[in-house]
Amino acid sequence: MKNPTKALLFTMTAVIVLFLMQSSTVFARRASGGKGAVSNGPNEFSFHFGGQASARGWTPGGAKLFFEYGRNLGSDLWLNLQFNLVFGDRWRDRHCWLDDEDRLVCTNEGYRGSAGELVGGVKWKFFPFSFPFMFYAKAGGQLVMLSYPYSTWGMAVAARGGGGFKFFVVDNFGIGMEANMSLGFVHIEHWGLDLYSSFDIGFGLEVLF
Q1: DSSP string covering 104-171, please?
Q2: Could you give the domains of the chain?
Q3: For the residues 47-64, what does the mean pLDDT come to?
Q4: What pTM does this model have?
Q5: How far apart (Å, rounded) are the C-alpha atoms in residues 203 and 185?
Q6: What is residue 92's DSSP assignment?
Q7: How many whole angstroms separate alpha carbon 108 and alpha carbon 55?
Q8: CB contact at 8 A, 98 and 183
Q9: pLDDT band at 41 (very low <50, low <70, confident <90, very high)
Q10: How far apart (Å, rounded) are the C-alpha atoms in residues 196 and 183?
Q11: Each residue of 107-125: pLDDT tens digit?
């Protein structure tokens, strides 16, 4: 198959056919078995890739990586621990200067900074259908370390909540998406205290073991 376009189409078609075959098997098994957890494994690991939007001020915005571990606490309730990274977007140079009292002053426009997030909370999973769709809601608190140009740093504390869904292709492997919002306060070196507010969305996978 010399034509690369035909080769790509053939590969995509094969992947889709295999996915649908596997999915139909899972659908049939779940439909006959009723509702319930997709796996007996008490642990989960999730990875998502997406982005974060800054809703106000000095909150970082840009590409985002989500890393998450969960432990079953009984029934549909799970411990939820996250480590996330935000890579700030930059579209304009920041200007900084010393004021009359030798304090560093910088413009806020053009750079949203980068951040590392530690999140702790709980996740509630539920299965509204007898098919292999799993929906969930999350709530918790987060500690955020922020980094800006010119060695400026900051720290934020915020409440975080959201939810999403997964479609389980096999019993312990699902794909899907989620969205979250954070609201709290941030303190930036040289700049002071401000509201911390963000919205993020990610697409990825979940493994149960």
Answers
A1: EEE--TTB--EEEEEEEEEEEEE--SSSSEEEEEEEEEEEEEEEETTTEEEEEEEEEEEEEEEEEEET
A2: 34-208 (2.40.160.20)
A3: 86
A4: 0.72
A5: 27
A6: S
A7: 14
A8: no
A9: confident
A10: 6
A11: 655 556 789 999 999 999 9
